[in-house]
Amino acid sequence: MGGRHVKKHIWPIVWTLLAVWTLIPVDASKACALGYEAHCTFAPWSTIICLALAWLHWWMPRRKKAA
C-alpha cells in the first residue's frame, strides 16, 4: 500500500515543480510572454499547462475512488 500511495502523489508534485521551473528567470535567448528571460520561452502558457496536468493527476485518482 505504501508504494502505491506514493505513486499517486508523485505526478502532481512533478508537474507543479515543472510549472514553477518554467517561470524561473535565467539567461535565455528570447524573452517569455511575461517580458523577462525565463527557462521556458512559452511561459506563462507552459506553466498553465503544467498546473492543469498536475490538477488532472491529482483529481483522476479521487474520481476513480468515488465511482
Comma- or semicolon-separated keywords:
single chain; 67 residues; mainly alpha; 2 helices
Quick description:
The chain is an all-alpha fold and 67 residues long. The protein has a domain of 31 residues. 66% of the residues lie in helices and 0% in strands.
**Largest sheet data:** none
Radius of gyration: 15 Å
Number of helices: 2
Mean pLDDT: 87
What general form does the structure show?
elongated
Class by SSE composition: mainly alpha
- How many β strands by DSSP? 0
Strand content: under 5%
Helix/strand layout:
Blueprint: H1 2-23, H2 45-66
Helix pairs in contact: 1-2
Q: Overview of this structure, please?
A:
- This protein has helices spanning 2-23, 45-66.
- The protein has a domain at 12-29 and 38-50.
- The model has no long low-confidence stretch (mean pLDDT 87).
- It contains two helices and no strands.
- α1 (2-23) runs antiparallel to α2.
- It is mainly α and 67 residues long.
- 13% of the residues are buried.
